[in-house]
Amino acid sequence: MVCFVVLPGFRRRGLLHQLLEGAVGHAHAMGAAVLEGYPVDSGGERVDQASGYLGSVPLFEAHGFSRVAKTAGQIGGKPRWLVRRELP
Hints:
By secondary structure, this protein is an alpha+beta fold. It contains 3 helices and 3 strands.
């Protein structure tokens, strides 16, 4: 499991993209075949800080993850999705 926290003064600089890609690379190097995540789908709206720690579906999709199923879970009133990426 990998979690990221980016302090407010460092957000909107692409750090989450770099961290997620680094986590994917590390998992691949360690022999992982499949990665899963449970990000929030904000519907293009901003989410509050407490809800944003999960990451967003578009962030994961930008790194090769695909939506698998909408979960029963919600955070901040927004649905969470199971996303998956298969590694070579």
